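Escalated from tier 1: zinc ion holo job.
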Amino acid sequence: MILSIESSCDDSSIAITEISTKKLIYHKKISQELEHSQYGGVVPELASRLHALALPAILNECSPWFLYLKAIAVTNEPGLGVTLIEGVTMAKALSIALSLPILPINHLKGHIYSLFIEREAILPITVLLVSGGHTQLIEVHSYNQMETVATTMDDSYGESFDKVAKMMALGYPGGPLIENLAQDGDPSRFPFTVPLWQSPLIAFSYSGLKNQVRLAVEAHGEDAYADIAAAFQKTATEHLTQKLKKYFKSHPPLRFAIVGGASANLYLRERVNELLLPYRADLFLSDLKYCSDNAAMIGRAALEAFHLHQSVYHKDIAINPRCKL
Ligand code: KG4
Ligand code: ZN
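Tier 2 regenerated the structure:
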């Protein structure tokens, strides 16, 4: 079995995955959303201290499986430096105490492999990764061969929901709050400009849209929040689908997936589903409980790393907060 640890942002999570069956044996996650909510975003030092409390509490429940472990997997990149170190330190301690190798796992690969926690891996696949830290279009050929074909020039899709929620003092994380609020709104009241709509670039950008929303919030106040949320969600998503449409012209999709925390957004799922219809490409999604950060996806990615002999000694593990894929 492999014990996996995730602490790249504001979720403390540990999982145990059986190597021969790929079965998830144990999984627990303690989210810090409530603690960060009053600040409208993640406070890194607070997140780090909360991981230091939560991770040992979860690990206590895992001791019955210690005897069966072959490796300790841990997210070592990308993420917040002060929170990654909590998981990596625990992995190092376990590695020394139990004489086990460490499998360093890239968080983004974890999100991609969240697709295969409950089904067989199907590759190649084109993946849209939308989270709080990233907005990327990725051609996934294999675990070792992933090519980022488009990325964001500034904010990410999920982050823009967080920032809009903060402008409206709704709390954190903003994604589900804005999606909910948008259900009661009229998206046509605020005709926001779709980012980069005239640009031939296949890239993403959310800073301009964020400013349009800020001006609307300031000018119209609380009564207009539902309409602003609906118009924002529509425009932010249209930006993604416009760029996907452009990309598909030269790279028609065979299979397509959306992963990451913001892939839970139902409006986004519906729009991408429509876009895929003419290509007859299937849309793959992770189960909702595996969209946001979790150690089950790190454990699933670690199975690939294990078979590829990518383990390292505890003294050789590096933390790369800004690394991509
Ligand atoms: O993958 P994740 O848990 O953490 C990172 O790796 O960043 O993603 C968290 C992000 C947050 O920005 C959150 O607001 C966004 O995912 N999110 C959503 C929704 N649920 C979560 N964004 C839009 N709509 C949602 N329903
Ligand atoms: Zn994530």
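The beta strands are 2-6, 11-17, 24-31, 71-77, 102-106, 125-130, 135-140, 146-151, 255-259, 282-285.
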